[in-house]
Amino acid sequence: MKAFLVDRYGKSGNTRIGEAPVPAVGEQDVLVQVHAASVNPVDFKIRDGDLKQVLRFKLPIALGNDCAGVVTQVGAKVTRFKVGDAVYGRPDKSRIGTFAEFIAVRERDLAPKPANTTMVEAASLPLVGLTSWQALVERANVQPGQRVLIPAGSGGVGVFAIQLAKHLGAYVATTTSTPNVEWVQQLGADIVVDYRKQNFEDVLRDIDMVLDTLGPENVAKSFRVMKPGGKLISISGPPDAAFAREFGLPSPLVLVMGLLSWRTRKLARQHGVSYAFLFMHPDGEQLRQITALVEAGVIKPVIDEVFPFEQTQDALAYVETGRAKGKVVVQVV
C-alpha cells in the first residue's frame, strides 16, 4: 500500500510517499481503508523528533493520527463492526499511520461515522473531538454557567471546543486575530479578544476553566484571569509527572517531567488553581457520544482546506504556519 513515511527525524528532507506493508489484523482489530485523514500538530512534532523520548517508534513509520474510512476486514473477536461499515477514529499512540491506504485499529478505538458527514468532514473530528471531550467533560466536568477560556479559537481544537463548551452551557471566551473575530462568534464564543489589539489577561476575569493549546507562556498568562479553584488543562505543555506515570514512562522520565513542570505547578498553586497536562487517548465510546452531537447538529465540522494524498507534505506545512481556520484534511481515496 502507499503511505506517507518518515525515514528519519528532522524538519525537512525526511519524508516521502512510498510502499509499506498492509498492517496485520489482530483478533480485536479492524482493518480500515482510509478515505481521509486530518493533519494535527502532533504529526509534525513526531516528524521532527520532538516526541521521540515519549513515543518510541521504529523508523520508517507512516504519519497520521486520525481518519475516516470503510471497514475491509475484521478480527476474529470483533463484534461491533462488519465489512463495509463507515467508521472514524483515532488509533492508539503506538499504532499511528493514517496517512496511508489502510490502517489496523483496535475495535474499541473506533465509532460509526456520523451519518450526516462526508468522509472528509468525519476525518476532521476524532483527535480534536476527543481532546476537547477529555479536557472539558472528563477532566474539568464543565457545568452550565461556568466561564471557560479557549485560546486560539480559530484553530482545530478551538473550533470544536467552543461548540462543545457552549453545548455544556458554559460562557465561552476565546482569542483570535482580527479577521476571525466575527467568525468565532458565529461558532458560539460569548467574548472574543482580538490578540492583535488587546491582551486577554487585561480583559478577562473569573475564568473557571482554561483549555490551553498554545504552551507555557500562554499558561502563565492564563493563571492571572482564573478564579481560585479553577482548572487549567494544557495540551501544549509543559508535561507533568502525572502525565508521565499515566503514559507508562520509565521513572527517570517521570522525574524529568516533574522538573519540567515545576515552575508552572508552583505558579498555579500561587494563584490557587490546578494545572494538568493532557495527551489525548483514543476512546470509541466517547467518539460515539461525539457522533450523536454531530448528527444532532450541535457540533459542526469546520474544514479549512483539503489536500490530495500526493500533497501530504504541503498539508503539513500549511498547518505548521498556524494560519488554518479549523481543520486541514488529506484525502486518500
Task: Break the fold down into its secondary structure elements and pairings.
Blueprint: E1 2-6, E2 15-19, E3 29-39, H1 41-48, E4 61-62, E5 67-74, E6 86-89, E7 102-106, E8 110-112, H2 119-123, H3 126-139, E9 147-150, H4 156-167, E10 171-176, H5 181-187, E11 191-194, H6 200-203, E12 207-212, H7 216-223, E13 226-234, H8 241-246, H9 251-260, H10 262-270, E14 274-277, H11 284-295, E15 303-308, H12 312-320, E16 327-331
Parallel strand pairs: 9-10, 9-12, 10-11, 12-13, 13-14, 15-16
Antiparallel strand pairs: 1-2, 1-4, 3-5, 3-7, 3-16, 5-6, 6-8
Helix pairs in contact: 3-4
Sum up the structure in keywords:
alpha/beta; Quinone Oxidoreductase, Chain A, domain 1; Rossmann fold; 6-stranded parallel sheet
Concise summary:
With 333 residues, the chain is of the alpha/beta class. The chain has helices at 41-48, 119-123, 126-139, 156-167, 181-187, 200-203, 216-223, 241-246, 251-260, 262-270, 284-295, 312-320, and strands spanning 2-6, 15-19, 29-39, 61-62, 67-74, 86-89, 102-106, 110-112, 147-150, 171-176, 191-194, 207-212, 226-234, 274-277, 303-308, 327-331.
SS-based class: alpha/beta
The name of the CATH superfamily of the largest domain reads Medium-chain alcohol dehydrogenases, catalytic domain
Oligomer: single chain
Rg result: 19 Å
The SSE order reads: EEEHEEEEEHHEHEHEHEHEHHHEHEHE
First-to-last CA distance: 12 Å
The count of domains is: 2
Count of extended strands = 16
Q: How would you sum up the global shape?
A: globular
What integer is the average pLDDT?
Answer: 96
Please give the CATH architecture of the largest domain. Alpha-Beta Complex
Biggest sheet details: 7 strands, mixed
| Helical content (DSSP H or I, runs of 4+) | 25-40%
